[in-house]
Structures are given as structure tokens and as C-alpha cells.
Amino acid sequence: MIRISSRAGKRIAVVGLGSSGLAAAAALRASGASVLAWDDSEAARRKATDAGMALTDVHAADWSSIDALVLSPGIPLTHPAPHRTVGLAAAAGRPVIGDIELLIEAMPQARTIGITGTNGKSTTTALIGHILAVAGRPTEVGGNLGRPALTLAPLGADGWYVLELSSFQLDLMNDARLDVAVWLNITPDHLDRHGSMEGYVAAKRRIFRDRGGGRKQTAVIGVDDGPSAAAAAALTKAGHWRVVPVSVRGAVPGGVFVDAGRIYDATRGEAELVADIGRVATLPGSHNWQNAALAYAAARAAGLDVATIAAGLASYPGLAHRQELVATINGIRYVNDSKATNPDAAARATACYDPIYWIAGGKAKTDELDLVAPYFARIRHAFLIGAAAAVFARILDGKVAYTHSGDLARALADAHRLAQAERLAGAVVLLSPACASFDQWRNFEERGDAFRAAVQRLAAEAAA
């Protein structure tokens, strides 16, 4: 657990008692702070009490005596309306921060790599952490991926925190600064929480906070979409940051790019072949090539040599729910891509396989599949589930054969039956929903776990 000595003796409100909020409250108490912990959910309060956490109704507290509000990232800061405690903190002139801010404040000597973007954050975060670990660097990986920030181990000047940062977490970073900021890509997402695309991009750009002197900062930016290219140009013009552009669409002067699965480094002038990831089974498709190229550039910024990074890329074990190969049954692959919670992520997966028995649907973030449409010809049959099934059926009608399966269990059974009957070469049963899971599942992990378990049962039956 992280100790935050700068907060000793302070009075801190912690609102939102999920995993990160509970960790923040526990770390602050262990650091000598007086903590006012609260969650509007009765179930969350009951869980916190069972964990030994004393509660205080912060809505009725005297905010003039509170030094700061630590807000969980799932609680609205601005849209669709600020949480009531945000207004109380503002009225009292108190800062609103998150657990990432506290981690970096507590560990000023350690180095920090932050990763953000719409798609690919978790894979890139895990990949960077893996490469650093292969290199023998003391490394802790967390944030929006895996462990909450304040449960990570303390690190010294030779250590690296590798943190996945959502737009919600970035909104809560005021003074924290990163040594390496990795920006993957931008497509519309979470617009209900940021008010507009402009608000979403502005939250993401908070990752590029200048130190104003001291340690040099490196920005590694995927420049293959408009908002990302604009962010790179603006940061280059500002001058403080060393900007490394990354592309999978063509060579970029002074940057890193991918051609036919090969990573080239042109940061020192002439392009140099540094790694061939086209045959790395755990990094399929051009979107994963982008992830790998960004991870390569981040690792170089962390001081690693090319050979060590290439070895780390080649040995990457993959990440659950991100094009995770669960089983191969009679030549048919079954792939869990439950993390694909929007059409852009689903398009990245459907671009990798042919033919596809596609399981899609859930709680839609948009009522269109334009980004997936270029790959409709690869989809042998779609099996639609959840609240978005009717909308997706209208989009696919006349273009892709589909079955309204309703739920995941039925969809997998339907897809398995058809795929095994047809036995087409190279075929994949792909769960890549293009939707959030909240209509039928608590989260994408639970959805993916259910898919994996069901596929493993089918594999066992086939083997028997």
C-alpha cells in the first residue's frame, strides 16, 4: 500500500467506495489523514462497512474543514451533471482529485508512464509493463487496468509505474505530471460524461501536463486519426515535450511506424527495422501493431535498448478479453473480445478474421455500425444479443445473415452449431459485441468470463 505523507493530518473526503475509492480511503488513513468516506449506494456502503470502513455522510459535513475531495472516476465530475459533492467542494474552494494524483504525489522519485486513448489502452499498458519487467526494471502496472493505483507497491527512482488512464481519471488529475505520456487514438466515446467530442478530447489532452522544468517528458502519440494528429502538432509547437509520432499507415519522419507487421524506428533519422510483430500470435491485426509500436516507443523513452524491447514484444502473453483465443474446436477458433465495447473496437477485431461467426450486441453506445461495415463481407453470420439486437438487425438486414439469439448463452450455442456444421477454413466464432455489457452483465469481464467458460465446456465435450 502507498503511504501519502503529504496528506498526514489532513481531512479528506473520499466519495465512491468501489475498489479504487476503498483503496484511497485505506491509504489515506494509513498515512495519518482523517478520512470522511461515503458512497450514495447503500450496497456499496454496506460492503465498505463489512470491510471495516467507517462512514460519514459527506453531504451533511462541514466542508470548510475538509482539505480535498477524492472522487472515484465513475462519479460524474461535470456531465451530465456534477455530483452534489463536487458542488460542495467547489463552494468551499477545495480541490477535487483522484487516486492517480495521490499516487504520483506520494512517489515523486519514481518514473511514470501513462497510457490513454479510446481503444487499445489495456493491451498497450500490459505490453509496456511486460517489456519493462523482461528488462528487469522494478515495475508496477495498474490504474484503470487491474489493481487500483494506491494498492501498488512503493517504488524508488529506478522504478516505473505503468498506468492505464481513462478520460474520467484524467479529469481528476490536476498537479500530477508524467514522464512518458502515451496517446493511442481517439474516436467518439463516453460523450454522455464529457458533454461533447470536444469535451472528451479535452479530458484526454490533460495527460500532457507540463512539469514546467525538471525531468524531460516524452509524448508518444498515434497520429492516424484527426484529433490525435492535432494533439501531436499542438504539443510539438508548444516545445516542452519530446514528441514521438507513431503510425501504422505510413512512414512518419522522426517517429515510429509499422509496415506489413514490421516496426521501423526513424527517430534518429534513417528508418531502422527494429522488430517483426506480424507473426506474434498475441498481437493480431493492425490495431495491435499500433499498440506494439506505441509500446516500443514508450519503452525506448524509458531507456531500454532495441533488442530487449523486441524480446519483450515477442514474448507478450496476451490479455484476457482482448482477442483472447479461448479454444480451437475441430479447426474453428473461438475468440473472446468482450472488451470491444464500441463499434471501433469491434471493427479492429473483425478486420483480423475471415470468415466470422459474430456475436454482437448489448447496451449500445451508438446506433450505427459504420466502422464495422467495411468488414461485413467477412461475417458469415451474426448472432445478436441484448438491448441493441433490434437496432443491429435493422443495420445488417440485407447485408449480413443474422439470428436474433437474445442472450450470450443462446448466441454461442447457435454460432457453435452453425460453425461446426459448415467447418469453413479459417473460421472464427468471435465475441466482439460493439456494445457495453450493462444490459445483461455487470461488466465486460463478467461477460467475457461467461463466454470463456462456455467455450471451454464445448471444447471438453468435443474432446470427449
Which tags fit this structure?
Rossmann fold; Protein-Tyrosine Phosphatase, Chain A; 20% strand; UDP-N-acetylmuramoyl-L-alanine:D-glutamate ligase; globular; six-stranded mixed sheet; alpha/beta; 3 domains; nine-stranded mixed sheet; 464 residues
Gist of the model:
This protein has helices spanning 19-30, 42-50, 84-91, 99-106, 121-134, 167-171, 191-194, 197-204, 226-238, 285-301, 306-314, 343-350, 389-396, 408-422, 444-463; strands spanning 11-15, 34-38, 68-71, 96-97, 111-116, 139-143, 160-164, 180-183, 218-222, 242-247, 256-259, 262-265, 272-276, 324-329, 332-336, 356-361, 379-385, 402-406, 428-431. It is of the alpha/beta class. Strand 14 and strand 15 form a beta hairpin.
Write the topology of this structure.
Blueprint: E1 11-15, H1 19-30, E2 34-38, H2 42-50, E3 68-71, H3 84-91, E4 96-97, H4 99-106, E5 111-116, H5 121-134, E6 139-143, E7 160-164, H6 167-171, E8 180-183, H7 191-194, H8 197-204, E9 218-222, H9 226-238, E10 242-247, E11 256-259, E12 262-265, E13 272-276, H10 285-301, H11 306-314, E14 324-329, E15 332-336, H12 343-350, E16 356-361, E17 379-385, H13 389-396, E18 402-406, H14 408-422, E19 428-431, H15 444-463
Parallel strand pairs: 1-2, 1-3, 3-4, 5-7, 5-8, 6-7, 8-9, 9-10, 10-11, 15-19, 16-17, 16-19, 17-18
Antiparallel strand pairs: 11-12, 12-13, 14-15
Descriptive report:
With 464 residues, this protein is an alpha/beta fold. The protein folds into three domains: 5-97, NAD(P)-binding Rossmann-like Domain (Rossmann fold), CATH 3.40.50.720; 100-314, Mur-like, catalytic domain (UDP-N-acetylmuramoyl-L-alanine:D-glutamate ligase, 3-Layer(aba) Sandwich); 324-463, Mur ligase, C-terminal domain (Protein-Tyrosine Phosphatase, Chain A, Alpha-Beta Complex). Helices cover 34% and strands 20% of the residues. It has 15 helices and 19 strands. It has a nine-stranded mixed beta sheet with strand order 6-7-5-8-9-10-11-12-13, sandwiched between helices. A six-stranded mixed beta sheet has the order 14-15-19-16-17-18, sandwiched between helices. A hairpin with a 2-residue loop joins strand 11 (256-259) and strand 12. The model has no long low-confidence stretch (mean pLDDT 94).
